[in-house]
Design the sequence.
């Protein structure tokens, strides 16, 4: 059976089950509107370690270990571990997961890592190469500030377009066996660059990539936006979301009634001073794991298109005056209890 | 998909600007307050009999000490986040720009961390401050000689 439809989408021959998800976040995230939903809250930004980077690794390690427990499997049952983060050479994932002792794929898709990991994991399983796969994404406010902006204690004013990197990590356990909630399709994003140079406005840089992938998915599958109860972008924030709605409308798709953004959901903009919203690999990961996945499981919603978004720049490329290429990976996730439509 | 030019206009319309007027007011008052504090230090040091030529240095050293202490206590960044240039432009901001990277990069050791990264923000200020003073000095020399 041909699984590829249209230019960028694959429809899995049998839905790839989501066995369990996990989320661990920092103090600020726990004070946001979704704070009570996360599996674990770690109030110590250092997580008992001596550096932000080591703390981020520990977050990733914790997310995978919680997910392993919740899935009822042991690490040895996972054929592959796929993980990504924002740090140079993906050290967040690598040092956190170096003791998993399982075959490992390290990925970089900036903040789209959760979507990329879930897409690749589902393809591995549906391709017959794996029974179980675990995908993980992590980010840490302090390590991201240190790498991309200023030292933490350095005084500066954040522009209103800037976003707030989520501290935490999420993991998703995928399986060939049938489960209530499953991945039915995936649309791999293309790199899109509409020449935004402002690293303090990543929502604007990423919105065209999100629009491109969402429109490609709807075209490839010939589905109207309303097919989904929610189309959930990763971390476009307030400005990026507004731009996304304008961009998709120009392509003839009005997604305004179903669109949600994890970066908007995770923080209370006014009370928490997070300007444009949350961002980081963990942003879409923990919001999906703790909130949307549970809503799907309950049957409160039945079909979502989960679209984590990533701004693919580095501090060096920004300093050299380069523009910011962006990407978005879409994963269709459905509650399959009532049988697939 | 829209053209780059068209998207640029969309982004400009969607992106809010910093609130310049309230930010200026906050910077003016906090910056002013720091200067008033500096002046009262000045008067105090004069009062306790510090030599006139040394008073300026004593004031600077005291302000730098306080700014670095507040940086270490994790308070100074909150002050700048409120007051902006009001706290960043005086000598307090320079002290913070040296101390913050020193704290942040201590994890990479005293050579490649603290030593190398301490000047990552303040370095350019020192370099271009020196270059500017050289240019001004040269201009002064030329004007004096031929003026």
Sequence:
């Amino acid at each position: 059976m041909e699984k590829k439809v249209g230019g960028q989408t694959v429809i899995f021959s049998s839905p790839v089950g989501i066995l369990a998800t996990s989320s661990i976040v920092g103090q600020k995230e726990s004070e946001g509107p979704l704070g009570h939903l996360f599996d674990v809250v770690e109030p110590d930004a250092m997580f008992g370690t001596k550096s932000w980077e080591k703390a981020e690794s520990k977050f990733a390690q914790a997310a995978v270990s919680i997910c392993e427990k919740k899935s009822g499997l042991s690490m040895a049952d996972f054929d592959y571990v796929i993980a990504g983060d924002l740090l140079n050479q993906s050290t967040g994932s690598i040092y956190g997961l170096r003791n998993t002792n399982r075959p490992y794929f390290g990925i970089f898709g900036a903040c789209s890592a959760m979507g990329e990991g879930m897409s690749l994991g589902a393809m591995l399983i549906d391709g017959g190469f794996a029974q179980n796969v675990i995908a993980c994404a992590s980010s840490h406010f302090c390590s991201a500030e240190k790498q991309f902006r200023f030292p933490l204690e350095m005084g500066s004013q954040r522009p209103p377009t800037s976003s707030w990197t989520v501290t935490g990590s999420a993991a998703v356990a995928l399986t060939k066996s049938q489960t209530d909630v499953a991945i039915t399709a995936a649309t791999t994003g293309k790199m899109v660059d509409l020449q935004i140079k402002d690293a303090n406005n990543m929502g604007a840089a990423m919105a065209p990539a999100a629009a491109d992938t969402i429109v490609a998915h709807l075209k490839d599958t010939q589905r109207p936006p309303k097919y989904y109860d929610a189309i959930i972008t990763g971390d476009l924030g307030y400005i990026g979301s507004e731009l996304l709605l304008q961009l998709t409308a120009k392509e003839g798709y009005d997604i305004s009634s179903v669109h949600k953004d994890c970066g908007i959901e995770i923080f209370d903009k006014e009370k928490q001073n997070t300007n444009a919203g949350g961002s980081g690999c963990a942003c879409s990961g923990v919001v999906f794991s703790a909130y949307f996945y549970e809503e799907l499981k309950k049957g409160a919603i039945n079909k979502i298109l989960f679209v984590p978004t990533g701004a693919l720049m580095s501090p060096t490329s920004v300093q050299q005056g380069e523009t910011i290429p962006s990407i978005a990976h879409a994963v269709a996730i459905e509650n399959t209890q009532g049988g697939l439509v | 998909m829209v053209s780059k030019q068209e998207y640029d206009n969309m982004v400009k319309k969607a992106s809010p600007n910093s609130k310049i007027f309230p930010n200026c007011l906050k910077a003016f008052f906090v910056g002013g307050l720091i200067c008033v504090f500096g002046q009262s230090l000045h008067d105090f040091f004069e009062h306790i009999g510090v030599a006139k030529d040394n008073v300026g240095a004593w004031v600077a050293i005291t302000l730098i000490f306080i700014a670095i202490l507040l940086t270490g206590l994790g308070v100074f960044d909150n002050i700048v986040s409120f007051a902006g240039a009001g706290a960043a432009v005086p000598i307090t901001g320079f002290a913070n720009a040296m101390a913050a990277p020193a704290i942040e990069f201590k994890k990479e050791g005293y050579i490649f961390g603290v030593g190398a990264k301490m000047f990552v923000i303040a370095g350019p200020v020192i370099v271009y401050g020196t270059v500017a003073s050289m240019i001004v000095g040269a201009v002064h020399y030329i004007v004096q000689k031929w003026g």
Q: What stands out?
A: The longest helix of chain B spans residues 20-47.
